[in-house]
Amino acid sequence: MIDHIQSILQQGLKAIEEATDLTQLQEVKNQYLAKKSALMGIFSQLKDLDAEKKKQVGFEINAARDQLTLALETKQKTIETLVMQAKLKEEVIDISQPATHAYQGSVNPFFLIEQTITDIFVSMGYQVAEGPEIESDHYNFELLNIPKDHPAREMQDSLYFDENTLLRTHTSPVQARVMQASQGKPIQVICPGKVYRRDEDDATHSHQFGQVEGLVVAEGINLGHLKQTLQAFAKKMFGEKREIRLRPSFFPFTEPSVEIDVSCFECGGKGCNLCKHTGWIEILGGGMVHPKVLTMNGYDAKKMTGFAFGIGIERVAMLRYGIDDIRRFYQNDLRFIQQFNRK
């Protein structure tokens, strides 16, 4: 019986040595070490042997099993090493080849400036409000002190769907909605978004453009608050050395109304082509909210006052980045957009 065990052991070791892959090695393991294998089957014959013989045969079986197990483990590691070496050789990377470059997208300067303006005013405590781009005549004009047949409507050549519905010509309707929703309480909001007018498309005009309008309503608000707010904005947007000046103007929804200029950041106010040799660049308009607008939108105009302003997003971007044509914002030209990486 011991000779039979040794014969099985030698056959198993030879089969292990001849195995060339893990599948063959698993078959050898099943053949020689499974419960129904010839070697393990000898265990069932031990009951017929005397104690001394049983001990000797049991020792030989266990020794043969351990030897086969060790040989299987060694052979498995050898085969796995050979497989890995072949795989590495087959999948070798040629480091002399050009690398695949992952291009990072750039943000359109329109959105860079919109986000910058928003961040500046949010840092001052303003809330951000948005509204529909398709508006009613009531919100777009009438609640802003621009009744039907008012000459100011001709200044905003509108795109109508019908006599009462149009694409909004400014983001001021959002201000009206915020005032009505606030029910006479103090507010401090900005309203960014796209607006539409029936303009000819050229280097400085577009039928679509962006605005960020601001509104503050509370007790005791005056023109000085507007000036200081816009002075802080100009310094954060264009540099700490910038100054602003206010010039009288007219807007139906503010009284008094002003145009706001910033000292030229190209020449420092000395005069150049950018500022048309005036030393100043017009950047936005604003003024004190007209009492009629406050009253129509639920405020006591004798108790509450407010100021409003409007900033053209593309205009600020064109000034800040030296962009020569407003149409570039909308042409999706990668050569243009890739110049504006947020980093």
Question: What would your notes on this structure say?
Answer:
The chain has a seven-stranded mixed beta sheet, sandwiched between helices. The chain is built from eleven helices and ten strands. It is elongated, with a radius of gyration of 42 Å. Helix 1 packs antiparallel against helix 2, helix 1 runs parallel beside helix 4 and helix 5 crosses helix 10. Helices cover 40% and strands 20% of the residues. With 343 residues, it is an alpha+beta fold. It has two domains: 89 residues; 229 residues, 2-Layer Sandwich (BirA Bifunctional Protein, domain 2), CATH 3.30.930.10. Strand 7 and strand 8 form a beta hairpin. The two termini are 82 Å apart. The model has no long low-confidence stretch (mean pLDDT 87).
